Amino acid sequence: MKFYPLRNAIAGAALLIGAVAAAQQAPSTATPPAANPLDDIPEKMPFNTPYGPPISLKRAQAAVLAAATEAEKRGWPLNIAVVDSGANLVTMVRMDGAQTASIAISEHKARAAVKYRRPTRAFEDAVQRKGYLYVLSLDDVITSRGGIPLIEEGKIIGAIGCSGGTGSQDEAVCTVGASTVNK
């Protein structure tokens, strides 16, 4: 095996000069990047729906029944939970064949929706679409669709959470359940 030190030194110098030249490009005339969207200060407080009295058992059961009927119609065995305006469980249904892990997740989605006064899809979008990873550090957040606040006369009276399918399946079923209250 022969060594060619001069040839190797010249080739290395050429690579180094090319790298330095690439690093010292002319200043860009492009506009600077936009300010961090997290620094924007909205005029109004987002998700500022006030809390109202807790949802009644009868209303909670009606929301769960509507959601379960929709899930059954589609062949999706889900867990469906409704919490009151204080995030306390009011009623919960585990459909036949629904996975057991989703029992707690359906409750978690409902609790997050009522505590943060927004659908849990807002958290999913914040992380997945906007890259706001700080959301993952907030207490009791769940970054999956399927939790929807229940609003009556402009006040949050509870929330419904569905789990066991994909996020879009959970959300579709929850939307039907929420429509019994949110009008």
Question: What's the helix and strand layout?
Answer:
Elements: H1 5-23, H2 57-74, E1 79-84, E2 89-94, H3 101-115, H4 121-128, E3 147-152, E4 155-163, H5 167-178
Antiparallel strand pairs: 1-2, 1-4, 3-4
Helix pairs in contact: 2-5
Helix content: 25-40%
CATH evolutionary superfamily of the domain at 57-178: Haem-degrading domain
**Helix/strand/pairing category:** alpha+beta
CA-based gyration radius? 26 Å
H-E string = HHEEHHEEH
Examine the secondary-structure arrangement and name the CATH architecture of the domain at 57-178.
2-Layer Sandwich
Mean pLDDT: 88
Euclidean distance between termini CA atoms: 83 Å
The neighbouring-strand order within the major sheet is 2-1-4-3
Question: What count of helical segments does DSSP give?
Answer: 5
Shape: globular
- Number of E-type strands: 4
CATH class of the domain at 57-178, named Alpha Beta
Structural notes for this entry:
The chain has a 4-stranded antiparallel beta sheet with strand order 2-1-4-3. Helix 2 crosses helix 5. The protein has a domain at 57-178: Haem-degrading domain (Beta-Lactamase, 2-Layer Sandwich). Helices cover 39% and strands 15% of the residues. It has 5 helices and 4 strands. The protein has helices at residues 5-23, 57-74, 101-115, 121-128, 167-178, and strands spanning 79-84, 89-94, 147-152, 155-163. With 183 residues, the protein is an alpha+beta fold. The model is unreliable at 19-23 (pLDDT under 50).
